[in-house]
Amino acid sequence: MHSTARSAGRTRYAETTIQKVALVYGIVFLVVGVAGFIPGVTVQLETIQFAGHESQALLLGVFQVSILHNIVHLLYGLVGLAAATGFAASKNYLIWGGVVYAVLLVYGLFLSGDHPANFVPLNSADNWLHGVLAVTMIALGILLGRRDVATRTA
Cys-Cys with 90: which of 1, 12, 18, 125 at CB 3.0–4.6 Å? Predict the structure, then answer.
């Protein structure tokens, strides 16, 4: 006898809303990570540094980036793609990823510029983006996580 019922709590890749959102964030982070290395998309690319605030490379002419910064975006993207395999992984990716961006926002507000402890190129546009990412990722992780749990248990 063949059963099409799936085990409780198991989902297919990017099946639930929260998994789809994690997938979208993952794809966007991958695109941003790659774009950070493309001349024209990133202006002043010849000034890019591995790390540190000295890099003058600007993604889309707005967001200050470094090689390390771009690599982190690529890794965040890969984690998002991997997280889309499961409900809990997607929820954790969004919530904890948002927490990391909240920490980066605080870091950028207090340690940006020529501060001796600054090893990340951040400008005010980066700070705003990190704030938006923190709020949206945490909110979507919490809200969609609850909604999907209610839908899956009904």
Answer: 18
Of 62, 94, 75, whose CA–CA distance to 34 is shortest?
75
User: Where on the phi/psi map is residue 64: left (φ > 0), alpha (ψ -120 to 50), or beta?
Assistant: beta
What distance lies between CA 133 and its chain's CA centroid?
Answer: 7
Residue 143, Cα to own-chain centre: how many angstroms? 18
Distance from C-alpha of 100 to C-alpha of 105, rounded to nearest angstrom:
9
- What DSSP string describes 79-119? HHHHHTT-HHHHHHHHHHHHHHHHHHHHHHHHH-TT-TT--
Torsion of CA 56, 61, 66, 70, to 10 degrees: 180
pLDDT tens-place values along the chain, 154 residues long: 444 444 445 678 888 999 999 999 999 999 999 999 999 999 999 999 998 788 899 999 999 999 999 999 999 999 999 999 999 999 999 999 999 999 999 998 888 777 777 778 888 899 999 999 999 999 999 999 885 454 555 4
